[in-house]
Amino acid sequence: MRRPQINQRRKMMPDVKLNSGSDEVGMKFKIIGISVTFGLNAIVFIWYFFFSGLT
After folding, report:
1. pTM score, two decimals?
2. Higher model confidence: residue 3 or residue 35?
3. FRET partner for 52 with CA separation of 20 to 30 A, picked from 7, 13, 18, 35?
4. pLDDT band at 1 (very low <50, low <70, confident <90, very high)
5. How many CB atoms lie within 10 A of CB 28?
6. 19 φ, ψ to 5°?
């Protein structure tokens, strides 16, 4: 059996072009994720500090 050449495979499966705007979306999600993480940590720390009964 003959194996298909690389050029024939390329015609059957075209290359997928990535969207150039996807980098900006990833950066936005990264900033949102870090902000939510630090915000929740701050809330828990403040809650613990005020309501733990430290003297």
Report:
1. 0.51
2. 35
3. 35
4. low
5. 10
6. -75, 130
